[in-house]
Amino acid sequence: MWSKESLFIGGKWVAPATSRVIDVASPSTEEVVGRVPEASAADVDRAVLAARAAFDTGPWPRMTPAERADVLVRVADGLAARADELTQLITSSSGLPITVTQLAHVMMPQFYVRHYADLARTTPLEEYRAGLTGKLHIRQAPVGVVGAIIPWNIPLLATAAKLGAAWAAGCTAVLKPSPETPLDAFVLAEICEAAGMPPGVLNLVPGGAEAGTALVAHPGVDKITFTGSTTTGRAIAEACGRTLTGYALELGGNAAAIVLDDAPIGDVAAGLVQSALAANNGQACIAQSRVLVPRSRAAELTDALAAAAREIRVGDPFDPATMVGPLITSRHRERVSDMVAAGRAEGATVCAGGGVPAGLERGWYFEPTVLAGVDNGMRVAREEIFGPVVTVIEVRDEDEAVAIANDTEYGLSGSVWSADLERAAAVGRRIAAGQIWLNDSFTLDPACPFGGWKNSGNGREGGPECLHEYLQTQTTFRPAERPQS
Fold first, then answer.
1. Where are the active-site residues found (predicted)?
2. Which residues lie across from 411 on neighbouring strands?
3. CATH of domain 256-438
4. 8 A C-beta contact, residue 199 and residue 50
């Protein structure tokens, strides 16, 4: 069993304040595969104070952006050098298929860190501007200490997307990984230490609600960045509002895929099965889980989706042939199962899946599931399922499809499928969401400013927009030069 006994605080591996530990269970075997210390509120306080000291008096914010970029490149190199180890840890703790882990969860974080290193070198942080009263000097400065609260479904990817930008901006950080998937964060801390990152720039405090609450409420934190549920995001926003702490929230989604009447059904089914059912075991905030299709083509698409869902190979996440592994916990599988049952009770038809796969009673597996005959008022259409379930909703026309797509509290992503790309793009502009895919549904790009509208959150990850999440503006007024007498 993989285990650690110390927390990483102030550049040192230190004993935690309590003897509490986090046992990390494999979603595929239900056995404990890792054990790490659980950070208490006292540990969080130590970590924030270390990050505060590193920001207020340490070298990191005072290094040139190019010097910080050099450290980030070494961190990315370290992630690449330890890719096999990270792949094993993330696969064992998350249940994600190993091929998905290798690409999206180990390789992609390297791209994000390198992207922010490039931005650090190329983004102007100072300018002079002419004003009515004289010359203005505009400077972008780091916001300070960042508290990063990471979800279980994209542990290393979310960490790289958030902290890569924060570090590039000159911030220091306290990282709280999810108790379900904390193992990779310890490897990252070792990599940062070996890369020469100054003490206190990264501080690691894995834990649950106690650690998260302490981090959000700590007066030494200047900004919270969080990925997770909308319910928790609201609570964080309320807590930050009381102290005027900055925050960036990447929250839930309930994306709609609008299938236009000219779309090639085979391509649509293949793409949506990948996004809504296979990607991340269906546990993705950008899953295109509501499929809006013209009535004239609904039966054709439903049959194609159901056939494709039945072909998805569900099983051992370490088998390269596996497309869908188990859900993260028994409790989460129960919730997904209850959602499907609620859909049935409200009149939806299960066209594929709907239960535990035969022969996979051990582990928290759930079949890729297609529900047809869904109305947008049903629970399965209103709530984020966060599992391998897709719902088919019939619409009269393009206008009704757009109206239903926008009839949700969420606004994270959406997609439009058509043989005419310009037509698809025009429809996409009518969808109230932060990301729109055309004839696609699950592309990641470090240059993309990723984030939501409405109750899907605020702020952006990726691109220069994310770098600016961790910068604040200072203006110096310079008096107009007086003519020489």
1. 250
2. 453
3. 3.40.309.10
4. yes
Mean per-residue pLDDT, 460-469: 97
Domain ranges of the chain: 2-251+456-474, 256-438
What size, in residues, is the chain? 485
Residue 132 CA from chain centroid, whole number? 44
**Which residues have CB under 8 Å from 62's CB, separation 6+?**
none
Phi–psi pair at 246, nearest 5 degrees:
-70, 155
Averaged pLDDT of the chain? 96
Q: Using alpha carbons, list the distances in angstroms from residue 306 to 206, 350, 389.
A: 40, 9, 11
**Secondary structure tally for the chain: helices H, strands E:** 16, 23
- Contact present, 293 and 303 (Cβ < 8 Å): no
- Find out whether 163 and 202 touch, Cβ atoms under 8 Å: yes
**Dihedral sign, CA of 388, 391, 397, 399?**
negative
Matching fold, domains 2-251+456-474 and 256-438: no
Other residues' Cβ atoms within 10 Å of the Cβ of residue 53: 16
Of the listed 180, 250, 394, 461, which one is catalytic?
250
Structure tokens at 325: 């592994």
250 given a catalytic annotation = yes
Residue 89, amino acid: L
Of the listed ranges 229-233, 286-290, 427-431, 476-480, the one predicted with least confidence = 476-480
Residue 100: in which H helix or E strand, if any?
Answer: helix 98-100
What class does CATH assign to 2-251+456-474?
alpha beta
Bridge pairing between strands 410-411 and 134-142: unpaired
Nearest 5°: phi and psi at 210?
Answer: -60, -50
**Shortest CA distance to 317 belongs to which of 358, 351, 281?**
281
**Residues 102-112 pLDDT 10s:** 999 999 999 99
Residue 485 has pLDDT above 60, yes or no: no
In eight-state DSSP terms, residue 444 is -
Q: Which residues pair with 173 in a beta bridge?
A: 146, 202
Q: Decide if 86 contacts 106 (C-beta within 8 A).
A: yes
In the block, residue with structure tokens 């592309």: 443
Q: Which two tokens stand for residue 468?
A: 């600016």
Which residues, listed in sequence order, are joined to residue 69 by a DSSP beta bridge? Answer: none
Q: What is the DSSP letter of 128?
A: E
Rounded to two decimals, the pTM is 0.96
